[in-house]
């Protein structure tokens, strides 16, 4: 499922990822090149999560958002902003 999700990512989102930790398949976490944690949750819904991640990364870059983390484990992404 992780490789399937990576295959669904657009070039912008793929280039924004620096690593993905799959040690716990129920709590997969990735990191952007800016060290922002991306919480994927369980390995299911790879195409949906790829689409969410691509959308979030595009929005973060366009709006120059400063985030603590992004959680795409749910149907609607959760963004935690830095204070």
Structure commentary:
This protein has 83 residues and is α+β, with helices and mostly antiparallel strands. 37% of the residues lie in helices and 29% in strands. The chain has a five-stranded mixed sheet. The protein has helices spanning 2-8, 11-16, 46-63, and strands spanning 17-21, 28-32, 37-41, 67-71, 78-81. The longest helix is centred in the middle third of the chain and has 18 residues, at 46-63. Strand 2 (28-32) and strand 3 form a beta hairpin. The chain has one domain (2-81).
Write the layout of secondary structure elements.
Elements: H1 2-8, H2 11-16, E1 17-21, E2 28-32, E3 37-41, H3 46-63, E4 67-71, E5 78-81
Parallel strand pairs: 3-4
Antiparallel strand pairs: 1-2, 2-3, 4-5
Can you describe this structure in just a few lines?
The chain is α+β, with helices and mostly antiparallel strands. The protein has 3 helices and 5 strands, in the order ααβββαββ.
What labels would you give this structure?
five-stranded mixed β-sheet, 37% helix, 29% strand, single chain, alpha+beta
Mean pLDDT score: 93
Percent helix = 25-40%
Number of domains: 1
Low-confidence stretches: none
> What overall geometry do the principal axes of the alpha carbons give?
globular
Main-sheet strand order equals: 1-2-3-4-5
String of helices and strands:
HHEEEHEE
The proportion of strand residues reads 25-35%
Instruction: Please state the CA-atom Rg, rounded to the nearest Å.
Output: 11 Å
- Report the sheet with the most strands, covering strand number, pairing sense and barrel closure: 5 strands, mixed
Helix/strand structural class:
alpha+beta
- Counting copies of identical and different chains, the oligomeric state is single chain
Helix count, DSSP H or I runs of 4 or more residues: 3
Q: Kindly, what is the distance between the CA atoms of the first and last residues, rounded to a whole number of angstroms?
A: 34 Å
The total beta strand count reads 5
């Amino acid at each position: 499922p992780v490789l399937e999700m990576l295959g669904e990512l657009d070039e912008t989102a793929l280039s924004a990822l620096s690593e993905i930790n799959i040690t716990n398949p129920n709590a997969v976490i990735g990191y952007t090149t800016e060290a922002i944690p991306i919480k994927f949750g369980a390995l299911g819904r790879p195409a949906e999560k790829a689409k969410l991640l691509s959308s979030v990364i595009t929005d973060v870059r366009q709006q120059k958002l400063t985030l603590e983390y992004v959680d795409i484990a749910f149907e609607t992404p959760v963004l935690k902003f830095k204070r």
